[in-house]
């Protein structure tokens, strides 16, 4: 369709009154930006990982400038899910990135995941004598030597995406450090107004696939040119009307807090103890869906703040959809 305006200036003039009209309401920008912190705090000793986070992790090596590093897309089903009959059919995938140095022949895996597993990132603990729900919800990047080909290939994906120089790899490593030090908390849910692709996104999740997407974007910014492949990711989405801001831990559960609201929050979370097993996670998920559909309420914890979500149909959806690779129209170093 032809552009209805002859010049950008005319368009701008037309927009000015619109912008003015919108200003006084000062709506929060949607989606609510994911908050970055100055540094990563030590996790509370109450939070004890059942499986050590990143057991074979190593610092990211410095590559020689002239090295050629192959970059792989790695994706595999979260295998424990196959034990929940219904859930085996869902495409719930974990994402990672692989690297292989041509000079040394060594390869590496890089991923981002929960320090205390998915359940702890999705449901808080209600502790005796502590009013506020207690969260063990940190996530972090993990880098280790080796790529377990069989694990990724057999029921998932191991595919070459691009090749980069050692210089680009080293620059990426600096960015990973920044990203890992400032993006601290795992966010399970995407929240949007409706399943319509054009609908408003209220909150973006922050989990393994988002880290992989940021890494691809960083590599693209550094000049990487990706092969033409389709890249799908798992998203768990909640559907709600416009979220209502409630406050943070101090303002809700502290002395000046509204007791009714504090009780409503505790009550909402009470059936959902962080599960000890993946199976339990899904039981809790089903319980939460039941509550959410019957009562059309959900309390979201995002950026360490609480929001009320007026839930609406279809309430929750797990999708496996394409998020395309960054534009490949840059000239750069690639295969
Ligand atoms: C979740 O956190 C609790 C409390 O620290 C801990 O006991 C449990 O092991 C954690 N779950 C997993 C799977 O790490
Ligand atoms: C990210 O931070 C965590 C927690 O401090 C640390 O264990 C991990 O090694 C870091 N990852 C990388 C790739 O540096
Ligand atoms: C990574 O290295 C291991 C050990 O040498 C090898 O078995 C595997 O095939 C390599 N994978 C890739 C994708 O380079
Ligand atoms: C791939 O899926 C099959 C069938 O469900 C399973 O038996 C096998 O263990 C899976 N492979 C890996 C590497 O997990
Ligand atoms: C919590 O909210 C209150 C009131 O909005 C604010 O003054 C305080 O700085 C917040 N606390 C944290 C830890 O963000
Ligand atoms: C306290 O919270 C409840 C439930 O969110 C709300 O209905 C009530 O108006 C609040 N009270 C005050 C004084 O803000
Ligand atoms: C990948 O995503 C595209 C578009 O979002 C979809 O049409 C396709 O069916 C998905 N592939 C799989 C294997 O689900
Ligand atoms: C792709 O090329 C167009 C035209 O040169 C440019 O405007 C656009 O910003 C490029 N996209 C990216 C992601 O670089």
Automatic annotation (TrEMBL):
**Superkingdom field:** Eukaryota
- Which segment of the chain is annotated as a signal peptide? 1-21
Tell me which GO cellular component terms the UniProt record holds: lysosomal membrane
> Which GO BP terms, alphabetically?
lysosome organization
Q: What InterPro entries does UniProt report for this protein, alphabetically?
A: CLN5
UniProt keywords (A-Z) are:
Glycoprotein, Signal
Query: What family name appears in the similarity comment?
Result: Belongs to the CLN5 family.
PANTHER family named among the record's database cross-references: CEROID-LIPOFUSCINOSIS NEURONAL PROTEIN 5, CEROID-LIPOFUSCINOSIS, NEURONAL 5
> What is the designated name of this protein?
Bis(monoacylglycero)phosphate synthase CLN5
């Amino acid at each position: 369709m032809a552009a209805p305006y002859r010049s950008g200036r005319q368009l701008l003039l037309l927009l000015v009154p619109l912008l003015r009209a919108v200003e006084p309401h000062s709506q929060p920008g949607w989606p609510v930006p994911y908050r970055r912190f100055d540094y990563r705090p030590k996790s509370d000793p109450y939070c004890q990982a059942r499986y050590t986070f990143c057991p074979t992790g190593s610092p990211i090596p410095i590559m020689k400038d002239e090295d050629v590093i192959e970059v792989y897309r790695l994706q595999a089903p979260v295998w424990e899910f196959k034990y929940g009959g219904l859930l085996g059919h869902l495409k719930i995938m974990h994402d990672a990135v692989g690297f292989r140095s041509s000079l040394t022949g060594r390869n590496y895996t890089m991923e981002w995941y929960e320090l205390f597993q998915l359940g702890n990132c999705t449901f808080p603990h209600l502790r005796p004598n502590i009013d506020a729900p207690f969260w063990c919800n940190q996530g972090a990047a993990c880098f280790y030597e080796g790529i377990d080909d069989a694990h990724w290939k057999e029921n998932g994906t191991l595919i070459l995406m691009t090749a980069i120089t050692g210089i680009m790899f080293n620059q990426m490593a600096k960015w990973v450090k920044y990203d890992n030090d400032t993006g601290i908390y795992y966010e399970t849910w995407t929240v949007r107004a409706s399943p319509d692709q054009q609908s408003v996104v209220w909150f973006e999740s922050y989990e393994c696939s988002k880290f992989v997407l940021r890494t691809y974007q960083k590599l693209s910014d550094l000049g990487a040119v990706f092969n033409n492949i389709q890249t799908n990711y798992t998203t768990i989405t909640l559907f709600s009307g416009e979220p209502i801001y409630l406050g943070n831990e101090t303002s809700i559960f502290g002395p000046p807090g509204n007791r009714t609201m504090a009780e409503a929050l505790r009550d909402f979370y009470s059936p959902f103890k962080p599960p000890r097993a993946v199976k339990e996670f899904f039981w809790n998920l089903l319980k939460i869906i039941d509550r959410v559909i019957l009562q059309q309420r959900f309390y979201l914890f995002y950026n360490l703040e609480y929001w009320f979500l007026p839930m609406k149909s279809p309430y929750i959806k797990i999708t496996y959809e394409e998020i395309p690779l960054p534009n490949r129209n840059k000239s750069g170093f690639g295969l």
